[in-house]
Every structure is written in C-alpha cells, then in structure tokens.
Write a structure and sequence with these properties.
By secondary structure, the protein is α+β, with helices and mostly antiparallel strands. The protein is built from 12 helices and 18 strands. The chain has helices at about 5-25, 70-85, 115-120, 145-150, 165-180, 185-195, 240, 245-255, 265-275, 340-355, 365, 450-464, and strands at about 30-40, 40-50, 65, 245, 280, 290, 295-300, 300-310, 315-320, 325-330, 370-375, 380-385, 385-390, 405-410, 410-415, 425-435, 435-440, 445-450. An 8-stranded antiparallel barrel has the order 11-12-13-14-15-16-17-18. It is elongated, with a radius of gyration of 25 Å. The termini are far apart.
C-alpha cells in the first residue's frame, strides 16, 4: 500500500484524466463516470462520453445510474445497525421475523439465518423461477408477489455449505428490516442517505429523477445497441437492487465504511462486515469471497471490499480500501460496461504513482512521456518520479504488465524488462524540433505524437 503525497496525487490524476479521455474515444462504451476519494476528500471526478447514444447528450458527473447490486451494501448496513441496537441477531432464523417462510415445503428453509442471507450462504437461487423483470419484460414483484415466488422456489444448494449469490436473499433481508422496524427498508436506507448528505442518491428509482438518469444501453446485436428506458422501480427487490446514485455519492457512502468512521456503525462492525464470511474454495469461481454485504477483491497490492451492479443497461462498481481510506467508483451506461476493469486500472495507476513519486518528476523525463501512434499500434510512455515505463493504453489495466524503460540520453530510451520476448533491448529514439516532439522510432517503427498523427489521419480521410 502507498500513501499518496501531493506530487503523486497530482501526477496520478493527470494521468487518469488523459488516459480515461483517450479510452473514451476508442471503446464501445457510450459513457462512463469515474470518482476517487482519498480520506474525506474527493480528489478526482470526471465523466466521459454520452448519456444517450441517440441524443448524444454529454454525460456529466451529475447523471444518476441504477447501481443495482451495490444496494446490498446499504441493506447490509441497515441490518448491522439493527443488530447493534439489539433489534435482531445475525444468527436469528429468518422465519423468526418472517413467519410465513415456515410455509415453504422444504423444511431446510426454516433454519436459514440472517447472517447466511448477508453472506450468500443460504442456498437460495439467484432469482425466482419467474424473473423477467431483469430484462425489463415485467415489473419487479411487490411484497405479495415476492412472497409467492419465494415459497414456490426450491433451494438451489444445501444451506450453509457454499457461496451461492442470491438477489432473492437480499429481498428477504428487506422484508426482515420492515418486520423489525415497521417501515419499508427504503425508509431505513433513506436515513443513511440523509445522514451522509448523498444529495443525488435515492433508495429506489423515482420518475422524478427524469433526465438526470443516464440512459442504459443493451448488449450489441448486429452492431447496434438499443437505448433502454431510464430507470425501473425495484419495489420489493429494492433492498437488493433499488438504489440510484452517482460515482461521487457512492464514494461518500463507501468512505463511511472506513474503520474509524462511526457515523453508521462501529469500528468492530466495520471489520465484521469486511471479514471473509463465505468463499468459493473449489471450481469455477474459486477465490470469490464475501463478507456481510461486501465482496472481496485483490487488486494491485491491496485487499479491497465493495460491490458491482448490473441493471437496465447500467454496469457499475465501487471498491475501497478501508485501511488506507481510498475509494474508486465507476458508473457505465452499457450492459456489459467494463466498470470493474476500470476500477482496477484506476487503483493500479494510483498505486504506481504513489510508489514512485516522492517529488515532481524531473523535466528531462517528463518531456519523454506521452502516447505515440501509428495506424496499427498505440503505445504510451509514463513517467512517475524517476521511473519510466512503457504501457499499452488500450488495456483497461495498463500498469499491470508494463515494460521497464532505462534512460540512455535526452533522446533515447531502452526497454530493460527481463524475459520480455518482444521488448527487451529494444530502443525508443526521439526526434525533437526545439521543445516539440516530432516522432519516435520504436524497434525501427515510426510513431507520431497525437497532434501529428491527427494531421496524418485528416489528410488520408481528405484524400479518400
């Protein structure tokens, strides 16, 4: 882990804005919003692309997204608050609060506990047998319909034996909250939202959001993505997938789960939420792990917690390091948007600059950094303190496998990455005119800085 000094933070955010802006022009993602919070300060917040492919409305940091399963973090927080108040216990059988569950034909359902729902260990199916609400072909169920669907749904696995992700489980937690408090779970979530001052966040979609909601977009079919209706009310599933928010607000919510922040729950409760409670130890998703309402993610040198979400053409993710007080949240308006990949790339960039920049990067190295283009390749030289690296800017995690560069002279760098079959020993030779970079030859191939490459492309397009 690396603490970010002011120089590292300045260079990291400059890199992020430049790189993310470039990626916005090269990928099939209508738009994405990225926010970073360090401690109690929002240090980066930018939006790229459009909110709607048909209207070309620019996406802004104020646009709201359905954060879907990120809602589970809010619901888990409410449940832990109630446990701290003695209004329920995590190891209570759920039927103690929802007696109708005893009507289920499978007697094992009667022993499912609140904790098992929180950590996806109850053996419930991911969804009900009729779940067309996910593809917007039917409304989400109300409480009466949810009850009927749950009672008709068989268990997918033996309870308390494996991690089996369940949206239904969190819908049941919402019912538990209502049974304990006498109010819908959305009311309790609303109190969290108000306490934290999340002005662009709602516990469930409301049509009053209007054009503030970014348009979701479908999977591509025959080269075209369909715009989807803006928002959908989750009703009895709101405790599982209802919350609507922005990247900035989700950073603020995650920051309330830093260990020494006791606005929502105690330090001990934070650690219990963020402790591995259930994990996959064998098979397809080996290594996946959950705490209470939070998933675990290993990224760079960090152990992160957080959640992703997918609903109505929005794909989002918020991950944080509670110890180092660092949060990254990403919102995309594409069904298969790379939200989690962007989060990983941002964390890796922050860690890279945090590790190498103690004071401003020397001018003689800084002048050698930047993206270089040809018709068939794009590379980028990144300077961080006294370290130069060569990356592929078209990768969402470009600093995972960088090439190491050695400074030879004011116009020459050499790749020194051990074992790099194509890179090691190759040379980058720079040509300047005064202070202006004209071109670079890498492994004998001519590459141009962006301005020069734009002129080349404009001329070719004009000739055609």
């Amino acid at each position: 882990m690396h603490r970010m000094n002011e120089h590292a933070l300045r260079e990291a955010t400059a890199f992020l804005d430049d790189w993310l802006g470039y990626r916005a022009g090269t990928v099939d993602v209508p738009g994405f919003s990225v926010a970073v919070q360090l401690g109690d300060e929002l240090v980066f917040s930018k939006a790229y692309g459009v909110a709607d492919l048909e209207t070309h409305e620019p996406l802004t940091t104020r646009h709201v997204f359905g954060v879907a399963s990120q809602s589970k973090m809010f619901t888990a927080t409410v449940v832990l608050q109630l446990a701290a108040e003695g209004k329920l216990a995590l190891d209570d059988p759920v039927r103690q609060h929802l007696p109708w569950l005893a009507e289920h034909t499978d007697k094992r359902v009667r022993e499912i506990t609140v904790r098992q729902l929180l950590c996806h260990g109850a053996g419930l199916g991911r969804d009900t047998l009729e779940a067309d609400y996910w593809v917007l072909a039917a409304p989400f169920p109300d409480q009466s319909a949810l009850r009927k669907l749950v009672l008709a749904n068989p268990l997918a696995l033996e309870p308390n034996t494996a991690l089996k992700y369940s949206n239904v489980g969190y819908a049941l937690l919402g019912q538990v909250v209502e049974a304990v408090t006498g109010e819908p779970c959305t009311v309790s979530v609303g109190r969290i939202i108000k306490k934290l001052g999340l002005k662009s966040t709602l516990p469930d979609y409301d049509a009053a959001i209007g054009r503030q909601m970014a348009t979701g977009h479908s999977l591509a079919f025959e080269g075209r993505r369909l715009p989807l209706r803006r928002g959908t009310t989750a009703r009895a599933m709101a405790s599982s997938v209802g919350v609507c928010s922005t990247a900035e607000d989700m950073c603020r919510f995650a920051a309330a789960h830093f260990w020494d922040d006791t606005r929502l729950v105690s330090r001990a409760t934070h650690k219990e939420m963020q402790r591995v409670q259930n994990r996959v130890t064998d098979g397809y998703d080996t290594g996946m792990a959950f705490g209470l309402g939070l998933e675990m993610l290993r990224c760079s040198s960090r152990q992160l917690v957080g959640h992703s979400g997918h609903l109505a053409g929005h794909t989002t993710a918020t991950w944080f390091d509670a110890r180092d007080k660092l949060v990254v949240s990403v919102m995309t308006n594409r069904k298969d948007g790379p939200a989690s990949q962007i989060v990983r790339g941002v964390f890796e960039a922050l860690d890279h600059f945090g590790a190498h920049v103690a004071k401003p990067t020397p001018v003689h190295l800084a002048r050698l950094q930047g993206r270089l283009y040809s018709h068939l390749a794009t590379i980028q030289v990144v300077a961080a303190g006294g370290v130069l690296r060569l990356i592929d800017p078209d990768d969402w995690e470009p600093l995972t496998w960088p090439e190491e560069l050695e400074y030879i002279s004011p116009t020459e760098l050499r790749v020194t990455t051990k074992g790099s079959v194509f890179g090691e020993g190759e040379v980058l030779r720079y040509t300047f005119k005064g202070d202006d970079l004209q071109s670079v030859r890498y492994a004998g191939t001519l590459l141009l800085p962006e301005a020069a490459y734009r002129r080349v492309r404009a001329k070719l397009q004009g000739d055609n």
